[in-house]
Amino acid sequence: MSTKNILICDSGSTKADWLYVDHTGESQVRTKGLNPVRDSLDTIQETLSEIPSWMPDEVFFYGAGCIPPYSNTLAGVLSKRFPEATVQVESDMLGAARALFGLEEGIACILGTGSNSCLCRDGNIIKQVPSLGYILGDEGSGAVLGRRLVGDLIKGQLPQALLDDFYEEYGLTQKLIIDKVYRQPAANRFLASLCPFISKHKNEESIQNLLSEEFERFLTRNVLQYGRHDLRISYVGGISVHFEDELRAAHDRLSLEIGTILSAPAKKMMVFHQKREL
Fold first, then answer.
1. How far apart are alpha carbons 262 and 265 in whole angstroms?
2. pLDDT tens, position by position, for the chain (278 residues)?
3. How many CA within 13 A on the CB side of residue 241?
4. 9 in Cβ contact with 56 (< 8 Å)
């Protein structure tokens, strides 16, 4: 294995997992997610202040919103935080691809607060359907499942008993929901935070239908675009873990092969980079 001290970060919109490996072993810490498109410089610096005084030789940050020029800003802040290290900032999709397939070929997917996918080979993205975010895309994601849930509940598309249970459990009203979605920041995280309610009631026929529709929409509008029915489709992200049975059922209906499902890919990312150092 590599003799270099390596720091990996796997960051989604909601949380970030930091994994550090040196000659003494490995250490981990979790912070809130960093997204350079969304977060201010002060927010990024404040979050980085929570990282222990590690001394990496290399830093690999994989995160949502990590596209130029925003990724350049984050790379600059990381370089100041770890001045002795070389720093690379890449998309969360590339990190997922490397964690799930290494140098092999496959279709890597993210199903978390947001959703994304790519065709990957040799540790690189070969082709990618744009995710477009939870307003225009992000099919099957936590944010879209939450958006579907509250919209269907309030518009009377789900049983009244579910609406009553929802209001009682969350202490929300229609007015508060509108405020959180349209006036407060991080609406996607608020909507994704409603997924435990979906999980709690996933045996209800109406919720089963919602999950089936969204996971099939994700596969149809994203994965099938690659035209590679011969490849395994693997996942990272909490939604793919918590709704694994429903996700597998959607694959079966579309005759698609599902592979690995990872809840936290940071360790697999570390393996990828350690092997590359050999």
1. 6
2. 557 899 999 997 778 999 999 988 999 999 988 888 888 888 889 999 899 989 999 999 999 888 888 889 899 999 999 999 999 999 999 999 999 999 999 999 999 989 999 999 999 999 999 988 888 989 999 999 999 999 999 998 999 999 999 999 999 889 999 999 999 988 998 999 999 999 999 999 999 999 999 999 999 999 999 999 999 999 999 999 999 999 999 999 999 999 999 988 999 999 999 887 65
3. 10
4. no
**Residues ≥6 apart with Cβ < 8 Å to 64:** 11, 12, 13, 33, 35, 37, 91, 92, 113, 114
Q: In whole angstroms, give the CA distance from residue 109 to residue 206.
A: 26
pTM of the model: 0.87
Q: What is the amino acid identity at position 152? A: D
The three-class DSSP label of residue 270 is helix
Closest CA to 77 of 38, 27, 36, 37: 36
CA end-to-end span of the chain: 6
Cβ pair 196, 147 in contact under 8 A = no
Q: Which domains does the chain have, with CATH numbers?
A: 6-96+265-277 (3.30.420.40)
Contact status, residue 107 vs residue 118, Cβ threshold 8 Å: yes
Look at residue 35 and give its three-state secondary structure. Answer: coil
Cα 176–chain centre separation:
26
Q: Write the burial class of residue 35 (CB in 10 Å: 0-12 exposed, 13-18 middle, 19+ buried).
A: buried
DSSP string, 78-130: HHHHSTTSEEEEEEHHHHHHHHHHTTS-EEEEEESSSEEEEEEETTEEEE---
